[in-house]
Amino acid sequence: QKEVEQDPGPLSVPEGAIVSLNCTYSNSAFQYFMWYRQYSRKGPELLMYTYSSGNKEDGRFTAQVDKSSKYISLFIRDSQPSDSATYLCAMSVAAGNKLTFGGGTRVLVKP
Amino acid sequence: GAVVSQHPSWVICKSGTSVKIECRSLDFQATTMFWYRQFPKQSLMLMATSNEGSKATYEQGVEKDKFLINHASLTLSTLTVTSAHPEDSSFYICSALSWRGRKETQYFGPGTRLLVL
């Protein structure tokens, strides 16, 4: 069993819809949770950074962490075709430690 | 934001040759950099952690004599793939650790695509 599980998709939504992404994990020591966006043949770009449980909002993005369920989510409101990419969740035990990535979910927003 | 560059962006080489990839943090100093490998449609797999002025820490299963890492300054880490073979063909991505707003975050380079013939 992988430490971090993520549905590979693809997840196809119409433009303007809400994109809902999630990851589950098994290591209860994870404290820091991140979401990255990766376009094809490019490096990952940090979208959201969350410490411990709770919600965090930044523009059209909302990240949620539920440590009791070992479950994290990312929501993208008013999705745009430019949001089409692979979204990777990542987590670490301590700040600055190595990251453990999920497998990534490919998202396609259709105009 | 924190900017990380990689050079070259892509390289094609013959089997048996060595290839050096550079990772630079352009607007911040990074005592720690990470090297990842990503195969098509797969996630990033950490290869090693590079610390400035000390030996790199390799993940289990990664050959340290094949993947040489040097972190000689606070803005530059290099990965050398020695005696490359076709199975080493992959997308290599580095990240640099930045301390911003009381949190340490990894910022990634654009990646280097390596094709070994």
What keywords describe this structure?
A: 111 residues; 0% helix; globular; B: 117 residues; mainly beta; seven-stranded mixed β-sheet
Distance between the termini of chain B: 37 Å
Strand count of chain B: 11
Number of strands of chain A: 11
Give the helix proportion of chain A (percent range): under 10%
Q: Major sheet of chain B, described briefly?
A: 7 strands, mixed
**Percentage of residues in DSSP E strands of chain A:** over 45%
- Strand and helix order of chain B: EEEEEEEEEEE
What would you report as the Rg of chain A, rounded to the nearest angstrom?
13 Å
Query: Low-confidence runs of chain B (pLDDT<50, min 5 residues)?
Result: none
Shape of chain A: globular
Report mean pLDDT of chain A, rounded to a whole number: 94
Low-confidence runs of at least 5 consecutive residues of chain A: none
Main sheet: strands, sense, barrel of chain A:
6 strands, mixed
N/C terminus separation of chain A: 37 Å
- The gross shape of chain B turns out to be globular
Structural class of chain A: mainly beta
Gyration radius of chain B, to the nearest Å?
14 Å
Strand portion of chain B:
over 45%
Could you outline the blueprint of secondary structure elements for this entry?
The complex is a heterodimer of chains A (111) and B (117).
Chain A: E1 4-6, E2 11-14, E3 19-25, E4 32-38, E5 45-51, E6 54-58, E7 61-66, E8 71-76, E9 85-92, E10 100-101, E11 105-110
Parallel strand pairs in A: 2-11
Antiparallel strand pairs in A: 1-3, 3-8, 4-5, 4-9, 6-7, 7-8, 9-10, 9-11
Chain B: E1 4-7, E2 10-13, E3 19-25, E4 32-38, E5 45-51, E6 57-58, E7 67-73, E8 76-81, E9 90-100, E10 103-108, E11 112-116
